[in-house]
Amino acid sequence: MPRTSKAEAPLSLDEPEIEGRYVELGEYTVGYETHKADLDPAPLFRGLPGDRCQCPHWGTVVSGKVVFRYADHDEVYQAGDTYYGAPGHLPLVFAGTELVEFSPTAALAATMAVVGRNLAAAKAG
């Protein structure tokens, strides 16, 4: 059976706002994210349908809190909560938050391609 742990997952993203470690298990990507600063990443999702994340996520908040904003409501998840983030959300993250999240790899890759382009454009501008 495929498995991983945070200690074994390679460091894939190390920015002032976030540290991310990601491993593919079957058709899913497991993400271990540590958020170092409060962040509203909404501009990074521009260009996706509704300018919102279209990838579903299942996860657990290890510490801190995360808010998923939908067009008609917000969902707040705090330490100890397990959640499902449906497509069409915008995350709002806070310093000190740690998440373990499971996402379909193909949908995550499509979303991250847009996020990556927007991030590159923001850094260049």
TrEMBL record:
Domain of life: Bacteria
InterPro entries: RmlC_Cupin_sf
Name this protein carries in UniProt: Cupin domain-containing protein
Species assigned in the record: Amycolatopsis eburnea
Lineage: Bacteria, Bacillati, Actinomycetota, Actinomycetes, Pseudonocardiales
